[in-house]
Amino acid sequence: MRLMPKLRILLTCLLLATIAGAHGEVGAQETSANVRLLAAARAGDTAGVTRALADGATPNARSRVGETALVIALKNDRTDLARQMLDAGTDVSLAAVNGITPLMAAAHGGHVEIVRMLLAKGAEVAAIDRLQKNAMTYAAGQGRTEIVQILLQTGVNPNAIYAHSLTALMWAAGYGQTDTVRSLLAAGARADLKDDRDKTALDIARDGNFSETIKVLETAMKSPAP
Q1: Is pLDDT of 27 > 80?
Q2: What pairs with residue 62 in β-bridges?
Q3: Any residues with CB less than 8 A from the CB of 150 and at least 6 apart, and which?
Q4: Which of 34, 124, 176, 225 is the 20 to 30 Å CA partner of 57?
Q5: What is the pLDDT of residues 155-190, one digit of tens each?
Q6: How far is 189 from 160, CA to CA, in rounded Å?
């Protein structure tokens, strides 16, 4: 009879240990699945991504630098994996440690349809990363004219002022993206605005010796937007 209380305590401890072990095992399995998800995304392994998700990986799992599988896929130009992660329910505005969002990655890479999907799911257009850049400045600098047009259609001001008083037109001019420069001018971008160095988009294009861009901006400066 004296052993009964001790036996009860022992059995209770064993039960609690079993429960804790079960919870720990589930947590370990989930962590393992998350690791495999991110590894598969980096490797461009569609089947591996599918298996990891089926094994309980969290769509919003992030790497040590805060990148989700969605951002990793976009940086690697794997739009098929990006679609897969969007279908899995990844947060479309979840930024990495450096502030890069899925929309920024898609805009930089020129992934038009993914940009449309992200916007349809409510991606934040105005988010700024650690370099003080956003989806519009990435798209303009990379010459992603169609994406620039899509962003303008969401209501982005063609004359919005970004870090260092730069505009999207200046970003496009600085990389000689003539088609994008034309598109922005057609949307009402002002060629006479100046950055914090007192330079216009034309001055910036001249710094880069982008002859075609210079011609377009010279014409625009002769008849600036109202």
Answers
A1: no
A2: 68
A3: 112, 115, 116, 119
A4: 124
A5: 999 999 999 999 999 999 999 999 999 999 999 999
A6: 9
The verdict on residue 57 lying in a domain is no
Question: Residue 212: which CATH number?
Answer: 1.25.40.20
Q: Which of 38, 110, 122, 47 is nearest to 74 (CA)?
A: 110
pTM: 0.85
pLDDT at 203: 99
Q: Which residues pair with 68 in a beta bridge?
A: 62
Range of the domain at 204: 157-225
Total tally of structural domains belonging to the chain: 1
Task: Confirm if 40 and 49 have CB atoms less than 8 A apart.
Answer: yes
Residue that has been written with the tokens 């890069």 in this structure: 100
Nearest residue to 191 via CA among 156, 162, 226:
226
120 found inside a domain: no
Q: Residue 68 in contact with residue 94, Cβ under 8 Å?
A: yes
Position 212 in a domain:
yes
Residue 198 lies in a domain: yes
The whole-number pLDDT of residue 22 equals 45
- Residues 49/37, Cβ–Cβ less than 8 Å: yes
Q: Which amino acid is at 142?
A: Q
Phi first, then psi: give them for residue 198, nearest 5 degrees: 70, 30
Check pLDDT > 60 for residue 57: yes
Given a contact cutoff of 8 angstroms between Cβ atoms, the answer to whether 68 and 102 are in contact is yes
CB 79 within 8 A of CB 73: yes
Average pLDDT over the chain reads: 91
Q: Which two tokens stand for residue 86?
A: 């969007």
